[in-house]
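RECORD TYPE: inverse folding
INPUT: structure tokens
STRUCTURE:
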């Protein structure tokens, strides 16, 4: 799989690849669903190290793939 260039596109692609809804990703990552929506919409473009690690764990990828 070739991942998109933006954080928004990568998170969306990885979530879709895992057949997860935003609600699923929110639950597994412990981030609010609104935060996931903002990330995928490109509104939220910076993630803390902790948020990046939580998303990466929920998506079963290395945190380096969830970088801005």
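DESIGNED SEQUENCE:
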């Amino acid at each position: 799989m070739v991942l998109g260039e933006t954080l928004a596109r990568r998170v969306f692609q990885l979530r879709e690849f895992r057949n997860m809804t935003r609600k699923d990703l929110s639950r597994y990552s412990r981030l609010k669903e609104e935060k996931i929506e903002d990330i995928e919409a490109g509104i939220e473009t910076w993630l803390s190290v902790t948020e990046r690690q939580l998303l990466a764990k929920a998506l079963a990828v290395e945190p380096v793939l969830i970088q801005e």
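NOTES: The radius of gyration is 10 Å.
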